[in-house]
Amino acid sequence: MMLTGIDAITYGVEDMALCRKFLSDWGLRKASSTKHSARFETLDGTEVCLRPHDAKLLPPAMESGSTLREVVWGVKGKRNLDALIKRITGNPSFTEGKDGLVRITDPNGLSLSFRLTQRKSVTVTGAAMNTPGSPNRLDAPSPVYERAIPIHVGHVVLFVPDLAEAESFYTEMLGFQVSDRYPQHGTFLRCALRGGHHNLFLLKSPTGKSKLNHVAFTVRDIHEVFGGGLHISRQGWKTQLGPGRHPISSAYFWYVHSPCGGLAEYYADEDFLTKNWQPRRFERKSELFAEWAVSGGLDGNTRRQHKGAF
Predict the structure, then answer these.
(1) Using an 8 Å Cβ cutoff, are 65 and 53 in contact?
(2) pLDDT band at residue 1 under the 50/70/90 scheme
(3) What is the pTM of this model?
């Protein structure tokens, strides 16, 4: 289907001022802001939009309170967009908005829209690593980041009432590829054969209800994960878990409680997959979620684990 990834997301939030501050502290650039809306951007132009949770223009919410209300998926080329529109026109939820975007609603109640990608190509370089026999960083120290500046929105994670139905919708309707599975518990999906380990992770809901788990933002390297997490701690935001590392995707992570809904994640160094990748099946175990992780995070000032976190 030639989807390029997440082009934009929109949150419906209860406290606009607080969420503006969070996204600014998170490292996003404020592109526009009014009393009733705000638009932030990552380095490559991925948009993160805020609206009051009761704004009439927002799609219906999949849960109460502040949460994700829409994901805009980018498409490469008009021919591919036309083919996608033709493919989804028969979906009962299909609409065409006044903004020119076509929309459907996934089985979890989340609005999806599609557009020619507006993300721009950016050149960023992560730190080279010196490994035995391969000294790739010569006469240079690794960087220390004062804060993170996210490159793009890499993935969204949702709790879903019916995992099989949700997986079928994304793979059959939209052409997503299965990367890995926790059978009966979760499915990692990517929107193209060639790309990062996942753009979407569907988790079977323990409550039987739809819910946002987190939105993840890609940064350059493990050092920027650290720098971003320490900075966000200094701004007073609370870490849920991190830093840490996921064995399944290989990514380093840091999760923070977000007033926009769910968690926000910094992550770096995920696996990059191609058509040759064969999906794996994993038993759901805590050691497969995190090879290692710091509960409650690190204090941005002392650079030590938060007191009372252990």
Answers:
(1) yes
(2) low
(3) 0.96
